[in-house]
TrEMBL record:
It is a multi-pass membrane protein. It is found in: Cell membrane. This is Multidrug ABC transporter permease YbhR. The gene is ybhR. Pfam families: ABC2_membrane. Keywords: Antibiotic resistance, Cell membrane, Membrane, Transmembrane, Transmembrane helix. PANTHER family: MEMBRANE COMPONENT OF ABC TRANSPORTER YHHJ-RELATED, TRANSPORT PERMEASE PROTEIN. Residues 6-202 form the ABC-2 type transporter transmembrane domain. Its main location: membrane. It comes from Nocardioides aquaticus. The chain crosses the membrane at residues 20-38, 50-70, 91-120, 126-150, 157-176, 217-235.
Length: 240
């Protein structure tokens, strides 16, 4: 059933060309814009570029997933699906699988653009950079599925972004290394999944050793499982 749900989501995406273009090309365009901004400022792009390769897929997938899931629920599609022999967890895993497949293409394009065209310097393997970006896109999908249960309109779904996304952007280490943050903020950042994604990306630019990267990915994976579990527990058939 999970595969069938994923196939249905992919077919819907294929019919929505604007969403497909945004999912696949927006991270590449934002990375290119960032490179342009810092083109004449030393090695700043090498420092912040990898972290944003984690951030951009996370944000895009969070927005698209939360709005798309809410639209299915408000239109009654979700209620009709749940009359079939399919569980809430099947639905969420199907959505996660579909967007994970999209994320593979999205992350591959973004990494190829950053490393191949924009000259982003890596010490670790490029394929692992893709793995981190895909994992973070799945994290955005899982959180988007979770928060969609608490929104009644698409506008409300977008409003969850300041609650679930912006604090992570501020505390994940992009603006200031987490080791240099005040103790309380550092403790809060340790509880946020995006911090570990950015740490993994940064590690790939500093060292060819991958042990720390896999540990960070394991932490992000635990957050994905938790978000999907909570999403399955809170998923409603319709929007009241």
């Amino acid at each position: 059933m999970v595969v069938l749900v994923a196939g249905r989501v992919l077919r819907q995406l294929r019919r929505d060309r604007r969403t497909v273009v945004m999912l696949l090309l927006l991270p590449c365009l934002l990375e290119a814009l960032l490179w342009w901004v810092y083109r004449d400022v030393g090695e700043v792009f090498d420092r912040v570029g990898p972290g944003l390769l984690a951030v951009f897929p996370f944000v895009v997938m969070f927005l698209v997933t939360s709005v798309a899931t809410l639209r299915e629920r408000s239109s009654g599609t979700l209620e009709r699906l749940l009359t079939l022999p399919v569980t809430r967890l099947d639905l969420l895993l199907g959505h996660a699988l579909a967007f994970a497949l999209v994320a593979v293409v999205q992350a591959s394009l973004a990494v190829a653009t950053s490393v191949g065209l924009l000259g982003l310097t890596l010490a670790g393997p490029g394929w692992l950079l893709v793995v981190v970006a895909v994992t973070n896109a799945v994290l955005g999908t899982a959180l988007g599925l979770f928060v969609s249960a608490f929104a009644r309109t698409e506008f409300q779904a977008v409003q969850f972004m300041p609650v679930f996304v912006i604090p992570q952007l501020l505390l994940c280490g992009l603006l200031l290394p987490r080791a240099e943050m005040p103790g309380t903020l550092r403790a809060v950042s340790d509880l946020l999944p995006l911090s570990y994604s950015v740490d993994a990306m940064a590690e790939l630019t500093r060292s060819s050793a991958t042990g720390a990267v896999w540990r960070d990915l394991a932490v992000v994976g635990c957050f994905v499982v938790l978000a999907l579990g909570l999403g399955a527990a809170t998923l409603r058939r319709r929007t009241p």
